[in-house]
Amino acid sequence: xxxxxxxxxxxxxxxxxxxxxxxxxxxxxxxxxxxxxxxxxxxxxxxxxxxxxxxxxxxxxxxxxxxxxxxxxxxxxxxxxxxxxxxxxxxxxxxxxxxxxxxxxxxxxxxxxxxxxxxxxxxxxxxxx
Length: 129
Prior knowledge:
By secondary structure, this protein is α+β, with helices and mostly antiparallel strands. Helices cover 20% and strands 29% of the residues. A hairpin with a 3-residue loop joins strand 3 (89-97) and strand 4 (101-113).
């Protein structure tokens, strides 16, 4: 098993690990966009384009949930996880709302490592697991 350093995420296919430090600012930026009602993630070069179907799913799910997503507090890092899936990391981010604080909403992401060592994030879904 590899030891995680701030910009070398753990590639362990047998277990989940905390979200790497180097991804946390990117994930906070994604959640900030969601909190502002931006489901396209304009201006975030590290986010792969989100298809219309996924955008609509996230909007509808959030509307039916009935609470307002807020920026991620540092405490989110304690419960959110990343797991290596042989070619990418599956990431589950616990979301917080204005009304309830920590919620049962989860943001599902996939993180890919590019040849130059940078990371690209695909937004997969917003849901209650």
